[in-house]
């Protein structure tokens, strides 16, 4: 019974993931990262609208899993709600 009520009371959510190998130390990679993010957001918005959600009911939360070259484990980090720019990359 509690599971039924939880499903009815919970927020509707969709998650979109895509693996993209980028080296953000290179300025040209920001364009690829932004293009990929735009594609994912456009798909998510279209799917949510198809489910009947109004614009005011839709919330997009961006995040990425990052690692330094040579590392095995990723760090999940929130991303800004805007295109990435060179100043967003860590400086060596």
Written overview of the protein:
There is one protein chain. This protein is an alpha+beta fold and about 90 residues long. It has one domain. It is built from 2 helices and 2 strands, in the order H-H-E-E. Strands 1-2 form a two-stranded antiparallel ribbon. The longest helix has 23 residues, at about 30-50. The chain starts with a helix and ends in a 14-residue tail after the last strand. The mean pLDDT is about 85.
Portion of residues in helices?
A: 25-40%
Structural class: alpha+beta
* Poorly predicted parts: none
> Helical stretch count?
2
Question: Roughly how many Å is the radius of gyration?
Answer: 17 Å
Number of strands: 2
End-to-end gap: 54 Å
Order the strands across the largest sheet as they lie in space.
1-2
Q: What's the order of the H and E elements?
A: HHEE
Number of domains: 1
Largest sheet: 2 strands, antiparallel
Strand content: 5-15%
Shape: elongated
Instruction: Provide mean pLDDT, rounded.
Output: 86
Question: How is this fold's topology laid out?
Answer:
Blueprint (H helix, E strand, L loop, with lengths): L1 H8 L18 H23 L12 E4 L8 E4 L14
Antiparallel strand pairs: 1-2
Task: Provide keyphrases for this structure.
single chain, 92 residues, alpha+beta, 2 strands, elongated
Question: What does this entry show, briefly?
Answer:
By secondary structure, this protein is α+β, with helices and mostly antiparallel strands. It has 2 helices and 2 strands; from the N terminus they run ααββ.
